[in-house]
Amino acid sequence: MCNKPCKTCPWRRSSKVGGEDIPRFDISLMRGLASTVPPRGSDEDGFYQIMACHGSSERNRKSCIGYVAAVGYSNIHVRLLASRGELDLPAIDAETKDIELYKDFYTMLDDYEAYHDRL
Predict the structure, then answer these.
(1) Measured between alpha carbons, how far is 66 from 21 in angstroms, rounded to an integer?
(2) Which superkingdom is the protein from (predicted)?
């Protein structure tokens, strides 16, 4: 089980904004990922979809570790996976403590959209 975000994870501040280094990146798909987090301005816990890792396949989807580390605790589905041993939240916290991640989805999305608006 991987407990660290991919090197090109969009949640990493070190990834190229705009998605140039992210395989199959599409800004319109990123916008659709708002369904994986509370509405803008809210920190409400809820049953949200879990963001899939861009490196996983359609047939074998894996949770995005950057997402889990940054905002996954607000997702009850993430906490359920952890309670069943399918996500190791303490290990993810340990592996990501020195990685600078976006603090929330909308800050990340705003950066990526601003890049694409300049194109």
Answers:
(1) 16
(2) Bacteria
CB 92 within 8 A of CB 102: no
Cβ contacts of residue 64 below 8 Å, gap of 6+? 5, 9, 11, 50, 51, 52, 53, 54
Residue 21 is predicted with a pLDDT of: 84
Q: Within 10 Å of residue 71's Cβ, how many Cβ atoms?
A: 24
* Alpha-carbon distances of 110 from 6, 7, 21, 30, 103, rounded to whole Å: 21, 21, 18, 11, 12
Look at residue 24 and tell me whether its pLDDT is greater than 80. no
- The average confidence (pLDDT) of the chain is 92
